[in-house]
Amino acid sequence: MYILEFLSKIPYTELREPLEIVFKHNVWRKTQCINMIASENVMSPLAMLVYLNDMMHRYAEGKPFKRYYQGLKYVDELEVYTQKLFGQLLNTEYVELRPISGTIANATAFRAFAEIGSKAVVAPVQGGAHVSHTRYGTLGALGIEQIEMPFDIEEWNIDVDGARKVIEEIKPRIVTLGFSLYLFPNPTKEIADIAHSVGAKVIHDIAHVLGLVTGGVWKNPLDEGADIITSSTHKTFPGPQGGLIATKTKEDYKKIGKVVFPMFVSNHHLHRLAALAVTAVEMKIYGKEYASQIVRNAKKLAEALASEGFRVVAENKGYTQSHQVVVDVRDVGGGAYVAQRLEEANIIVNKNLLPWDKPEDIKNPSGIRIGVQEVTRWGMKEDDMIEIAKLMREVVIDGKDPSEVKKKVIEFRKNFLKIHYAIEIKDEDEAELLKIMLHPNQVF
Q1: Sequence-separated (6 or more) residues with CB below 8 Å from residue 312
Q2: Residue 317 shares a structural domain with residue 275
Q3: Most buried one in 73, 260, 369, 373, CB count within 10 A?
């Protein structure tokens, strides 16, 4: 009712519809849905507040203190400070925050260490590799040839012996690790040893598990032999949308810096740096607790779904060691059908190719991919995973009307409206901060 009253006061009727759409989205996704898209998360209230700052209007080309624009003295300080925070989280001095997404981070790393006509050994997309690692995405756009390493379905991971044969035969310039469908840590050390023996660089995409790495529940690939890690900053790491690259050596860091600008990024969306710094501090404080709960929730959800009759993959491996759970839904309509039915019940997941699918199955693949990092951020624990599994069973297996299950979902979600593992601020402080962000002339 408050929204309608607010909209009625706006004199420009053309503004009412877009504002109403945004308000509806916020209410739906933040208070009425169980969101389990594995590549999403929510920022803390403090991070969201500082995201609204004047830097969103500004332009910065080049590196801190070596810009091609003036007026950036505070931007430079903030960027360097945020780099140091991430360096502490990732145990390296060499962090590049200018990529504006994980895909741009990948593009930068690929271009820095390979050229048109070079070869790259990658995991198959059906095995979980991100599309940017493949001929269909960024790798192909850069003219780099994709050669797939074999995937072991039983282990739900890279086949090390098979990868050895491919890498030693092809002698690629780069080898990529890291998945978009990422249940278990890749054998980074083993693959890195093989890659380095033929002079290849190892680029490990940890976009999905950055929060698990900085939280200390997954090993840092830089410590395991990877030369470069790429990532986004908004999945298990609950920051603003953006990307990063970190390296082990100054030489590789410099090489990447010369590629990210001017090749792939001009201005790098400066307002996100403040929110990124806040989230990095929150992860220093709460990261281990948060990451550990994510993994516990994922394992419990997988077990609960299996108990409810779902075909959860990798049962022989304990289902998962990450934030993700993967379900084979071929026998109940396929991934597209199941994801749509669940959305009608306000349970948000995505369809996903599985290793036995063919490329043409992408419109209705075998699987659905589920992530628990956001529901964990809203305070859900293991018992709540059991309830979610029951709700999913009602829609998918029992065939109940999704609109009826939706009512239960909305009622369930009322218990989880506060973001956890975050720096708390009082309502009056939140209002004061918002005033500072939007109207600094009234404060200073």
Answers
A1: 302, 305, 306, 319, 325, 326, 327, 328
A2: no
A3: 373
